[in-house]
Amino acid sequence: MSAMLVFYPDIKLVHISAAMSSGTLFALRALALMAGMRWPRLAAVRYLSYTIDTVLLTAAMMLLTLLPSALFANGWLWTKLAFLVAYVGLGMAAFRRGRNARARAVLVTAAALCFLQIYGIARTHHPLGWLLWLDG
Ligand code: HEM
């Protein structure tokens, strides 16, 4: 166990704050884009989003090195990462130019569901995340 563990609560707070900012900004940009607004594509907005995601991932890596590996034994973190890749990919696809409105809405919804599942997996420390509820 590392001495860095004293910083665990702070790093976790940074990670969660960045995660919530990332999801909120994505939702706002997606809704604005679907409403025909143009600011979601501004360079400043994109850089803000890259910055938040870099903070998010950096804090995630720090948590990963800090915590005992037994915490990840059931594979929840790898499932979370897989959903993260899907979230980013669907989000990028949703923002592509020239999409029709319906396809964009489907992609945004799919990305949002991935985000919710990431959150569920993080909270439950289980690969099924929110789906655990279906299990009773
Ligand atoms: C959209 C992306 C993400 C969201 C919404 C998110 C959300 C969260 C939340 C809410 C927690 C706190 C869980 C709790 O203790 O109740 C958490 C913890 C954690 N996350 Fe993330 N996360 C994201 C991305 C990542 C990524 C990419 C990684 C790893 C590469 C990661 C690794 C971790 C680790 C190691 C913890 C600590 C678990 C614990 O302290 O019990 N997260 N995340």
Give an overview of the whole structure.
By secondary structure, the protein is mostly helical. It has 2 domains: 67 residues; 64 residues. The longest helix has 27 residues.
What keywords describe this structure?
mainly alpha, 2 domains, 136 residues, Invasion positive transcriptional regulator, SirB
Task: Describe the secondary structure blueprint for this structure.
Elements: H1 8-34, H2 43-66, H3 76-95, H4 101-124
Helix pairs in contact: 1-2, 1-4, 3-4
Bound molecules: protoporphyrin IX containing FE.
Question: Concise description?
Answer:
The protein has 136 residues and is mostly helical. It is built from four helices and no strands.
Q: How far is the first residue's CA from the last residue's CA? A: 35 Å
Low-pLDDT residue spans: none
Structural class: mainly alpha
Q: Got a strand count?
A: 0
Domain tally = 2
Mean of pLDDT: 94
Percent range for β-strand residues: under 5%
Helices and strands, in order, run as HHHH
Helical amount: 55-70%
Q: What does the largest sheet look like?
A: none
The Rg value, from CA coordinates, equals 16 Å
